[in-house]
């Protein structure tokens, strides 16, 4: 996958968000960007206990984090802090993110990669983008 210069790359899992900007013109060159605070959000109905059909607390926390990340990325798009966005996320997290995209965010998405790369180096992330 080729990225234009200035594309925001969000690498997400259920607990962590890392942001990069592609600063390379021909090759992918990722430069770390500051990450906004993601407010803790509860997912699911309050007061519900985990059971057979109810998600456990960890799952609710991860889903809530994904909702917060979607809100933060939507805000960046809507305030014109990015013209194009690539999201790399663990598959489950990516599913939760998709539920929260604003239509303008969807329009600026240049791609999604369903892979957990949050603990990887920038070189490994760039290689995964190149292969996609």
CATH class term: Alpha Beta
Number of strands: 5
CATH architecture type: 2-Layer Sandwich
Straight-line distance between termini: 5 Å
Number of domains: 1
Describe the largest sheet: 5 strands, mixed
Strands of the widest sheet, in order across it, are 3-2-1-4-5
pLDDT averaged over residues: 87
- According to CATH, what is the topology? Nucleotidyltransferase, domain 5
* Class computed from helices, strands and strand pairing: alpha/beta
- Unreliable segments (pLDDT under 50, ≥5 consecutive)? 44-52
Describe this structure in words.
There is one protein chain. This protein is α/β, with parallel strands linked by helices and about 130 residues long. The chain has a single domain (about 10-35, about 50-130), classed as Nucleotidyltransferase, domain 5 (2-Layer Sandwich), CATH 3.30.420. It is about 35% helix and about 20% strand. It is built from 4 helices and 5 strands, in the order βββαβααβα. It has helices at about 55-80, 90-100, 105-110, 120-130, and strands at about 10, 15-20, 30-35, 85-90, 110-115. It has a 5-stranded mixed β-sheet. A hairpin with a 7-residue loop joins strand 2 and strand 3. The N and C termini lie close together (about 5 Å). Residues about 45-50 have low confidence and may be disordered.
